[in-house]
Amino acid sequence: MPAERYYYSDSITDFLRRGTDEIVGALARASVHDINTKSTDAWVDEIEIIRTTLAPFKDRGSVYFEYIIPRMGKRVDVIALVDNVVFVIEFKTENTDKFSVEARRQVWDYALDLKNFQEGSLNRTIIPVLVASKASTRKCDFGLVPFEDNVYQPLLSNASRLGECVETVLDKLQSRHDFSIESDIRWARSGYSPTPTIIEAAIALYNHHTVDDITKHDALHSALSKQVLPLHSFARFVPANLHRLGTYFPTVFHC
User: What is each CA distance from 220 to 153, 226, 228, in whole angstroms?
Assistant: First the structure.
């Protein structure tokens, strides 16, 4: 993993001043993977879209490209902090005229991960946004559906309306213009403490004990005691998010 949790970051003001080649170069230098034309072309497209989107919000926030979600081993395409609202923006790279269920779930998972495991996001409003660049205007959806933890249901936008999407959110939330680069840096570098899911806890159990060991009471008690805390955390998380989990896993949660 690179030293920072992101490949490139800047205040929105400085991001707007930099050339696309300069930003792509910074992304390429930070990447831990081989860079090909497909990767650089995708970055160029994203940079241009985000540049247009954030132009009205100069001096109001920061932008992060390829922000790493350590627990999931994945990277958010772009995170924009505007007026202290966290926009988690994921671009569709295939079938760019459609908003698939899988892509919606992915960007929502990123937002939920930040809210639950990143210290700096605990008291922030988080807005996941899925961008299908070529989707028709009628497929876009900027309706704000809040949940108790201030993580909203994913919004859907095409490339040309992404700026409108951000502006609509900020207007409806009546956000305050109290940008501080120091505050944004603290958010980006704040503590990240993931709690294993029930699946991860089960894997940890079996990684350190054979099936024969687990059938023995002493071994079972010892092994399970180490998993109690993460499982309790999971048990607290599920009831609060059951309505969201059921949206994407109806056969599991709505039997």
Answer: 40, 10, 12
